[in-house]
Each structure stands twice: as C-alpha cells, then as structure tokens.
Write a structure and sequence with these properties.
By secondary structure, the chain is α/β, with parallel strands linked by helices. The protein has 14 helices and 14 strands. The structure holds ligand 4FV.
Length: 395
C-alpha cells in the first residue's frame, strides 16, 4: 500500500510514519509514503496556496497548486481522497474497502476548505472522520492511514487480531484486563483467570453483546452476528397445497440457499397438514436423495410443531419471525429479533409463504414471467432476510 499525502504541513507526518506499528510497517516496506507540499506546486508569488473566499468569509485553498501536486503524484490506479467534514463517514467497512487499493492519495484541507472546482475535477472521494471541525485535514489523514494499514497483512502482529476486532464484525469490543489480577482492590473477572478458553470466548462474546446493546444498539443493524449466535437459525416454508409444483421447483434451491447462508434446518409445512408436507418432502428426497438439502429439509405440521422440534433440540424457545415480515418493515422486525436472539441467546425461525399469491402485482397472462417473478421474489426475500439478519454484507 502506498500513501501520498498532500499537505501544507508535511513535517506533521514524520513521527506518524516513524513510530510504533506504522513506523515498523514502513521500515518493513509493508507500506510506503510520499509527502507533497502544495507550496512546491504554486506558481503564485511566495508560493501562495490560499486566497480570500469569493463571497467573503475566510481563506480557501487554491485549485491550481493542488491540481499540479495531484497530477505529479497520481497514476490511473490512484484513489484521490479529500479529508473533509462533508465526506463519507470513515467506518470499518470503508476502511476495509480502501485497504484493497494500492495507492491512496490523501489531500489535507486547511482554512475554510479547498476550491470546489478542484474537488469536482480531481477528487474521487471525500471522507470525514466525524461531525466536528478540525483546523486541518492532517489528523483525519493519519486516522485513515492508520486504520487502513491495520488491514495490510503483516502490519499488525496476528492477522486474526484484526479479525478478532469487534468492529471487524460491527460489534463493540469486549473489556480487556492485564496484570495485576487485583488493582487497587479491583479484581479481574474470574473467568479470565480460569484458563478455560471456551468460557473466556463466550464471556467475551456476551460482553460484546451487552456493551453493544447498551451503548450502540444502532450497530446491530449491520453487525455480522454469526460469531455471537449461541443457538441455530431456522427457516420455514409454508407451501400452498394446490401449488405443489412450486414446492417441487423452488424448494430444493431455497433449502440449499438457506443451508449455505448458515441455517440449521428448513421446515416445510402445508395447510393440507403434516402428511401432505411429509409426502412432498419424501417426493423431493426420492427424486434427489444425494442432494445437500436432503438432510436439511424436514416436514412439519405447522409453526407450532416446528417450534416444538427446535425447542427440544436447542433447549430454548425459538423467536418466530412470521410470514410477510418481508413486506411489513423488515428493518424493525430484524432489529427486534437480532436484539432478542443476542440478548437471550435464543434460536430463531424465519417463516416464508411459498405461493403464487405472493406477488399480486405480477404482470397478467405471461405465465412464464409469473413463474420467474415468483421464484425471484421467494429467493429474494430469503436472501435479503438472512443476509440482513446474519449481517453477511460485512463478511
Ligand atoms: C475533517 C473532518 C475536518 C475542515 C476545514 C479542515 C477541516 C479544514 N476532515 N473529517 N472532520 N477538516 O474537520 O475530515 O479544511
């Protein structure tokens, strides 16, 4: 990873690139950097780089010196980033994205900001480290480079350390302790002295969950909660009896998808009753006994019997997310369920209705189109629901 920093105060960065983890990474050549001062690219008298703002109200960085500096340093694979409060919020997901680049060119603004015409012509992305105003973009640039460098392999000790990081999965971190075991009368939580790694990691997961729910419940929406789930995730497909063909055509793939996304079992229920559901499952299994989903798909008399089955195996009552959750505000349903599942360590079962009526606004007459559209909405609702629940977008 190469960083080019364009700043009127390049001396600011000496200690940053020469100290601690970033210093070692620089010495090991894992990251490289160059510092450019826009003054060196100013044709104006006294290497002027700022001027009065049109319309009044303080000084603005001039476009030309910045343009020349970027033209001198950028290649077609460079990503030109302006640090500014008007930018996209710097969060772990964006950090991971930027860590994939091989050249980040960071512009540090000063005064009121930089000439907007330069931004329009040269800047790929504006990034903000938070809704507050600093005297300059240098500290934001350092924050970005530090966070990105942690994702460059070899920069931080154990790669796992980064992946272990709570934010890597979108949750708050567990509390940390070191010697002495008793400090000013305060003891370290006993489990951490137990040597029982299983107990330690489940305590840490619980602490992450507790602190996230207390301090940052907003993080749950996008958090990848799979490492924090103590019980299984299940799906239930309610098939309309006189549309057996749907079951036969889409269920195997739906079940496969659900299994691939981390679900433990898929239940098939039919209003015609458990026998109809069992016959349907047996027909599907006879047709493809080797299929991955064969052992995954199970007939049930209804949501109650499915919940009973889960309760017996998981020794906990499952959270039930009823059919239609997709249409009645998935976000709220998921926030509630994620919170309950994490807080109480419950299993969860998502219910989906598999019948043509699912898509009332499908175009008239075009049967083929109707079929395709039905499949899409079934797969779509399954994928979106599970993706948002697991927070797979983060993984
Ligand atoms: C900033 C931020 C920030 C604004 C005016 C520098 C200052 C001056 N940059 N996140 N917050 N920049 O306050 O990135 O140009």
């Amino acid at each position: 990873m190469k960083f080019t920093v364009i700043s009127a105060f390049p001396e600011f960065f000496g200690p940053f690139f020469g100290t601690s983890v970033i210093g070692k990474a620089t010495a090991k050549g894992l990251i490289s950097h160059e510092l450019l001062n826009p003054r060196d690219f100013s044709e104006a008298p006294h290497n002027q780089i700022d001027d009065y703002a049109y319309g009044g109200g303080g000084m603005v960085m001039m476009a030309e010196p910045l343009a020349r500096a970027v033209e001198a340093a950028a290649s077609n694979t460079s990503k030109v980033i302006l640090m500014s409060p008007q930018g996209k919020r710097l969060e772990e997901a964006l950090v991971e994205e930027l860590a994939m680049e091989d050249h980040l060119l960071l512009l540090c603004g000063h005064y009121e900001g930089v000439d907007e015409r330069f931004v329009e012509s040269f800047v790929d992305l504006e990034v903000s480290i938070g809704d507050f105003v600093l005297t300059g973009g240098e500290i934001p640039a350092m924050a970005l480079m530090d966070a990105v460098s942690r994702h460059i392999s070899g920069v931080v000790g154990k790669k796992e350390a980064v992946e272990e990081d709570s934010f890597f999965r979108g949750m708050l971190d567990t509390p940390h302790y070191t010697r002495p075991a008793e400090w000013r009368g305060k003891k370290v939580p006993g489990v951490l002295l137990s040597g029982d790694h299983g107990a330690v990691s489940s305590w840490r997961r619980q602490e992450s969950i507790r602190r996230t729910l207390e301090r940052r419940p907003d993080l749950l929406e996008n958090a990848d909660i799979r490492p924090y789930l103590r019980k299984g995730v299940y799906v239930l497909f309610n098939v309309d009896p006189d549309e057996e063909d749907i079951a036969e055509r889409v269920l195997p793939t739906l079940a496969e998808d659900a299994a691939a996304m981390g679900c433990k079992k898929a239940f098939l229920v039919s209003v015609k009753g458990e026998k109809a559901a069992r016959d349907c499952v047996n027909r599907l299994k006879q047709r493809s006994p080797e299929a991955v989903w064969a052992g995954f798909l199970k007939a049930a008399g209804g949501i109650e019997t499915a919940s009973e089955w889960i309760k017996k195996r998981e020794k906990a009552e499952p959270c039930v997310v009823p059919e239609g959750h997709f249409r009645n505000g998935l976000g709220t349903a998921l926030r509630r369920v994620k919170r309950e599942v994490l807080e109480k360590g419950k299993p969860v079962i998502f219910c989906f209705r598999c019948c043509r009526k699912q898509s009332p606004d499908s175009p008239k007459g075009d049967a083929e189109g109707k079929e395709r559209e039905l499949d899409l909405s079934l797969f779509g609702s399954l994928a979106v629901t599970l993706d948002r629940f697991f927070g797979c977008s983060r993984c």
